[in-house]
Amino acid sequence: MLRGVLLDLDDTLIDHHGAVRAALDLWLPELGVASTSETSALWDEVQERHMVAWRERRVSFAEQRRRRLRDFLPQIRIPYEENDLDPIFEGYLRAYESSWRRFPDVDEALAALGAAGLTTAVLTNGTVEQQRAKLAKAGLEGRVGPLFTVEDLGVAKPSPDAFRLACERIGLEPARVVSVGDRHDLDVLPARAAGLRAIHLDRRDAGPHDEPDRLTTLTGLAAALSR
Ligand SMILES: [Mg+2]
After folding, report:
1. CA 83 to ligand 1 centroid distance, Å
2. Helices 85-97 and 16-30: crossing angle, nearest 10°?
3. What is the pLDDT of residues 24-61, one digit of tens each?
4. How far is the CA of 114 from the centre of ligand 1 (A)?
5. Which residues pair with 177 in a beta bridge?
6. Which fold has domain 4-15+101-225?
7. Ligand 1: centre distance to CA 220 (Å)
8. Which is it for the CA torsion 87, 149, 125, 212, positive or negative?
9. Which residues surround ligand 1, an ion (CB under 5 A)?
10. How confident is the model at residue 227 (pLDDT cuts 50, 70, 90)?
């Protein structure tokens, strides 16, 4: 009998990918650079590489931001001094924060989870401060259960311990909890290793397509949970 749902935040409840696109469209022209699919792919690649170092607690959050710019700026031919990095990142951040939105299918899904009497919580790899601000800006503050991040759990996804600890915090056995998230490697496989059920929310239909517990929108979540 299912009792709880651990929801990922970025690209599950909040359109992180869309916010990054919108932010690059605002910010890059300020630097005198055109925002293209190439600059966007480059930004994604640099972000993923350095976020791993933060998740593994090898660098601070501020330092992973600087590392992203040290890789990114030379490739878009923007000269910089070390002291410029934080102010330059601020420009991106303002644009990113102004673009935070929840997905349109979130309201109905949360209502269905509530009606089914399920406990909810958010499990994310971001910082407490930024992820709290994101929930508030996207109109989700107080509408989903507690927020657990790498900072308060001391461990990040893809460690199965992140899922075990989150279940412990909400007082539920892992076998009674389902993880729902967009990253198969971060939200699905380690959740199963911790004994939870896991549903892959594959919003961009990128696969793996042989994943048996898979949705492309949250609209089908309540039905999927009753299966
Ligand atoms: Mg995510």
Report:
1. 31
2. 130
3. 999 999 999 999 999 999 999 999 999 999 988 899 99
4. 22
5. 4
6. Rossmann fold (3.40.50)
7. 18
8. negative
9. 8, 10-11, 182
10. confident
